[in-house]
Amino acid sequence: MQPLRQWIRQWIRRTFSVSTRHRIRRVIRPAFMGTLRRTTPISPIWGFDRGNAVDRFYIERFLAQHRSDITGRVLEVQSPAYTQRFGTAVTRSDVLDIAAANPLATLVADLAAADALPSDAMDCFVLTQTLHLIHDLRGALHHAHRMLKPGGVLLATIPAVSRIDPDSKADQWRMTPASAERLFTEVFGPGQVSVQGHGNVLTCIAFLAGMAAQELSTRELNHVDDAFPMLITIRAVKADPERKPVDISVVIPTYNRSHALAKCITSLCAQDLDAHRHEIVVVVDGSTDGTGAMLKGLNTACRLTVVEQPENLGQATSMNAGVRAATGRIVLFIDDDMHCPPTLLSAHLAAHAQRSDASVVFGPILASGPGEDFSSSQLAASFDVKFSRLMNDPTPIWPGDAVLMPNTSLSRELFASVGGFDTANFARRRFDEELGLRLWRSAVRFVFAPDAQTSHAWQKGAVQMRHDWIEGGAALVRLHRKHPELIGVRPTFGKLLAAPPWKRRMSAAASNFPRLTGWSIDALMLAARLVASSDKAARREQQLQSAKVALFALHGALREAGRWSEFARLFKPDTHTPRSLQ
User: Fold this and answer.
1) In 3D, which of 182, 225, 232 has the Cα closest to residue 55?
2) Comparing C-alpha atoms, which of 315, 293, 316, 317 is closest to residue 306?
3) Model confidence pLDDT, tens digit, residues 355-382
């Protein structure tokens, strides 16, 4: 039997590509229901015989997000593979190894005792899955910091959960995000380090069992549970004494809007602040329209940092990544289709300077033109109503004004203290409301700054709006579950729940077929335009549009709630009065 097995293995290697062989192995030895009740791993080599190791998914995504840091003279350990794969405008690639026998090594030394290596020489140091093998961690970090140029970047990864390599006695350390942040901050200084944990209980189990990343879904891999980090990524910047500190960082998440983004950046670079006092951090959220290339070719007078995410992870994830890359004392969130007047940043800074306590500052958003369709126009109209009220009475009202919408700023320290946006439950919708509620519960004051004014072009089309309505309804259920203080407060679905039973049943039935219902309502709106007067048609169209929005949102909410009784419990009619946020 043994010669036959060897012949079959050799035939498979000759016949099939590596990726096909990995798929064959996953089919022959499936991981389903076989990861827990066993005393040996499915794969003894971290899943590399089944695909890509789970930790490599997070490592490669982290490096892809920080391509713009991997530039100039770059140092890597053992091999220049990641430099070649993710580097941009690399002028020189160095390889560090403790073994002189490595033909790729250009620098031979123990990182913990690397006194002979040059100081202030590297623009970037890619240090992945290495520090846990070095006993003298502080010594290694000291030399990594010393070798970087002022303003140079260290991109490091450390395992939080991993098996021990039985062939190596060097594997010594595991960390938590808190210990990593403390250790790196001791060396690089406060405000120079951003740390993030990746993974959840499933990815930890999968990695220990030897499953491949291909055996997990994107949703499972992207879910972050702070109680179960599998891998820790660290971006640390060596302080530049000649670089003046930044007062405010503008964070812009973007997805496939390169033309609008270029206009937004142009307006931000024309601020009345000195150029060194502000920076722009753009997070490219898996764009496929050439946004990354456009940003690289953009010649700006202000400081611009680009973070590229290889896949579309949602606005909340992008904004968290932007804050981690920011260096300013204050962070301001702006949408990529906004135009920013020259006084915007100084108005936000002035509003913060007037208050000694931690506060959230938000300014008015005006429509710069008609939306792409009726839905966008209605959204713009709702903002007009909101900010007209605040212009007359600047006292924010809970819960409607407790939202971190675009044109909102707060201190970077405050944002980090509450954990940023909840990407596990609100990656794409309601994340701004959820964080606003957490800040409100922490007694943070919301301040309306009428002078901090922006204009919005409302670039979303009808298809994207429909997806947003459905996801918004589902996220609203999660929001009420996480924040039960909202139950009986928000007017959402209140009219429906107060309606007669037959109307509730009809609405629930119509929401089961959102696309067909949407087409039917669109047909009715078209008929209204043809047969009614312009004023009457506009009123009827507005009523029908509101019904369509409600039905799409109802579809998402019922799907998330699971049953009507749970939906009714979460959205029972109003019994409370909105309260002041001050």
Assistant:
1) 232
2) 293
3) 877 799 999 998 765 555 555 566 667 7
